[in-house]
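subagent[fold] <- orchestrator: predict structure for attached chain, return tokens only, no commentary.
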Amino acid sequence: MPELSGEAKGQWRPMSAADLPLVRTVAEKVHPAFPEDAEVFAERLWLYAAGCLVFHDGAAVVGYAISHPWRAMDPPALNSRLGILPSHPKTYYIHDIALLPELRGTGAAAMAVARMLAQAGREKLDTASLVAVNGSAGFWRRHGFREIALDKIRDVALMRKLSGYSNAAVFMVRRL
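subagent[fold] -> orchestrator:
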């Protein structure tokens, strides 16, 4: 599993309900252009706690990661509740990895990716998928994810969901 480099100290641990206000605070700082209601974070934790992590530096929560089994080629719309998880998921969806700026480049995100992909393996899913925002597609490529070219996406609903993130959002998939 990747190790932390640089000055970052801390560790990933399972998210708890008590962490949710701190997760929301991190989300507001890291993703101001992609706001999500507190209920979205709470529902993801309730539906699939095994895919919800926080990075704690010893003093505070300074990052989080959220993921869950889902339907292939059908990322949830931004700021949407899921209701239930599919009974026969086809992909492991990485909803978000968010780290405060001081943790970037330390290996903390790579550690989260490794943990989420290991969880996907436990679920025996064939792929992992995500929507890359904020210019993060290069990071995800380094972790084996590949962009689904827009000219290959013929699903109008998928295109609408992607545009809800931003015009620069990239849908990416990795074979496991």
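orchestrator: received. Logging for downstream: Confidence is low (pLDDT under 50) at residues 1-7. Strands lie at 11-14, 52-56, 61-70, 91-99, 127-132, 146-147, 170-175.
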